[in-house]
Structures are given as structure tokens and as C-alpha cells.
Design a protein that fits this description.
single chain, alpha+beta, conserved putative lor/sdh protein from methanococcus maripaludis s2 fold, Elongation Factor Tu (Ef-tu), domain 3, 3 domains, 6-stranded antiparallel barrel, 4-stranded antiparallel sheet, 7 helices, 16 strands, 40% helix, 25% strand, rod-shaped
């Protein structure tokens, strides 16, 4: 009798133990909840994270607002050494000083000739003296013309290489723009556009960066078109002045040029909001207090705010700006089967 009761109790314990274990497993809370969104986008799996977990992960969000952005295209250029312009300036100012000296001698010779002519009419000086004074006046006049031609030649040669605006800056004694470039308070840039393109007439400002980072780009103001095209690409060249640049001469730079066309509507997102997986760019949208949806971006472009997105995101949505990589890691971890985690 005792043996029968012992066997019955032992068999009951064995049969109940797996059930209890399964009940314990079912009661364990899940850290993530992946569901398929209404639009059927498999990449937009939803991740659940309570407020405490969000705080530990440092999750921060911002609400998207509509912005307009003018289309841009990229071009390339260099920081130009203004030494050739300095040489032109020195030559022109030296010729200008010689011109002033020649003008003074010519004026004096003209006055002496008039005085000698008056004295000759009064028979006070000889005809030979008058002729000598006329020869001096003629020589000073020719010297004045020669110096004037020298100035014109220097300016003309400068315009063939640098254009009218830069030539005018560096052929005036106290031009403030030339002094900014010579005193390194601004830098001269030469930007080459793609072949068969040109700068739109309304473009006066572009943005440049030496490492191709649009969000860190500095503004540069248009000076003028260059008289010369690029000898390799045959693209037109333009000169710009960057007041905030402090780069070594010869540095290669990337420029972003506004192009014609209607401004596009979209949203700006900061750079940390973008995460990548398998070559695809994603962002996380906070759909409610504890749920985050991953959304793929088809088109985006760099700008000074980070990235400009048109079409894939809507104003009013709440985007994760800090902690997006943490959310991606947590979501990908949830996709790993339990047997592989061991």
C-alpha cells in the first residue's frame, strides 16, 4: 500500500513539473514587441521600450517641422594663392607712381613752354630757346603717354586672367576687398562647375567645405566669373570670397551650388538620427509613449542642419534624434532566435 502511494505521488510530480516551467516562461516579460505596421513595410518593425528603459538608453526626440530647400549640385575647387594678384598690384602701383611723376614733369614743361612763348613774342628770348623748350615739352608728353600705356597693359593682362572685378580690386591703392585677401582676413576661392553648366544669375552665395561635409560648410560670396575655363573638364570657373575660411593655399574643396527650380518641401533631421543597416538608411519614429517604428529613407541629402528629407517623413512626426543606434541594436537583437543567443 505504501509503495503504491509513493509511486503515484512521484508520477504526479513528474507530470506537473514541465507545465509549471512553461507557465513561468510565459509569465516572463518581453523586452521588445515586433509587429508589422499597417503599410506592410517589413523594415518598419515596431519596437516597444518603456519609459525607464528609454531614460537608460538616453533616447531623445524632436517633432519635425516643414522646411523648404532649394536644390543644389556639387562642384569642386581650390583655395587660390593671391600672390600673382599681389605682383600685379605692385606693378600697377609702381606704374601709377611713374605716371604721377611723368604728369608732374609734363605740367611743368607745359608751363615753361607757355612762359617761353610769351617771352619770345616780346623778343626777350631767342627762337632757339623756344625750340628747346618745345622739345622738352614734347619729350615729357611722350613719357606721360608711355606710362599711361604701361598701366593699361598691366590692367589688361590682369583682366585676361582674373576678370574685371578682381583686377579693379588690386589696381586701386586702398581697396578694402584686396586688403582683406592680402591680410588673410578672407580667402580667394576658384570653383569649377561641370561642363556645359553655368551659375544661375540669382546665385550670390554658395557653401564650401574642405572635407565634403555639407552640415559644416561655410558661406562664400560670388566675386565674378573667371575668363578661363578648366583646361581638363572645360567647365566654367568662378571666383568666390570666403570670409570665414582659414585654409592652406591649394586646398581642394567641395562646393554646393544652388540651382534653378522651385524649392522643395520636406523636413530637416539631425545627422545622429540616421542609422544604417545592410546599406539602407533608417530613422526611428516615436509612435506613442512606448513604441518606436523603424522607417527606411529612399531619398535624403546633406545640408547645414544634417539631412533634408522629402517624401519619406511628415511634419508633426516625432523622430528619435539621440539613441537611434541603440534602438536599432535592440531591435536586431530581438530578431535573433533564442537558440542562437546561447
Amino acid at each position: 500500500m505504501r509503495i503504491a502511494l509513493f509511486l503515484a505521488g512521484w508520477l504526479g510530480f513528474v507530470s506537473l513539473t514541465p507545465t509549471a516551467a512553461r507557465a513561468d516562461d510565459d509569465d516572463a516579460p518581453a523586452s521588445t514587441d515586433r509587429t508589422k505596421p499597417a503599410d506592410g513595410n517589413a523594415a518598419g518593425d515596431v519596437l516597444q521600450l518603456n519609459s525607464a528603459a528609454q531614460k537608460r538608453a538616453g533616447i531623445q526626440t524632436q517633432t519635425l517641422v516643414v522646411v523648404k530647400q532649394t536644390p543644389e549640385f556639387a562642384a569642386y575647387g581650390t583655395v587660390v594663392n593671391p600672390e600673382p594678384l599681389l605682383s600685379i598690384r605692385q606693378q600697377f602701383l609702381a606704374a601709377s607712381a611713374q605716371q604721377d611723376s611723368a604728369q608732374a614733369r609734363y605740367s611743368e614743361a607745359a608751363q615753361n613752354l607757355n612762359r617761353t612763348r610769351d617771352l619770345h613774342q616780346q623778343d626777350i628770348v631767342s627762337t632757339r630757346r623756344l625750340q628747346e623748350q618745345q622739345a622738352i615739352w614734347q619729350a615729357d608728353k611722350a613719357n606721360l603717354a608711355a606710362n599711361s600705356y604701361q598701366q593699361q597693359l598691366i590692367a589688361a593682362n590682369s583682366r585676361l586672367v582674373w576678370g574685371d572685378t578682381l583686377s579693379n580690386w588690386f589696381t586701386h591703392a586702398q581697396d578694402k576687398n584686396a586688403m582683406q585677401l592680402l591680410e588673410h582676413r578672407a580667402q580667394l576661392l576658384q570653383i569649377t562647375l561641370p561642363a556645359n553648366s553655368r551659375l544661375d544669375p540669382g546665385v550670390k552665395l554658395i557653401h564650401i567645405h574642405e572635407r565634403g561635409q555639407r552640415q559644416a560648410a561655410l558661406p562664400a560670396a560670388l566675386i565674378s566669373a573667371s575668363p578661363q575655363v578648366d583646361p581638363v573638364s572645360q567647365g566654367p570657373r568662378y571666383f568666390f570670397k570666403c570670409a570665414d575660411c582659414r585654409l592652406p593655399f591649394g586646398t581642394h574643396i567641395t562646393a554646393w551650388i544652388p540651382e534653378g527650380g522651385q524649392a522643395s518641401s520636406g523636413v530637416n533631421i539631425p545627422q545622429p538620427a540616421l542609422v544604417w543597416h545592410l546599406g539602407q538608411a533608417f530613422v526611428f519614429i516615436k509612435t506613442d509613449a512606448e513604441h518606436f517604428s523603424r522607417r527606411a529613407l529612399k531619398q535624403y541629402s546633406s545640408n547645414s542642419q544634417g539631412y533634408f528629407v522629402a517624401g519619406d517623413l511628415r511634419p508633426g512626426e516625432e523622430i528619435v534624434t539621440t539613441g537611434a543606434q541603440t534602438l536599432l541594436s535592440q531591435q536586431l537583437k530581438g530578431l535573433i532566435p533564442d537558440e542562437d543567443k546561447d
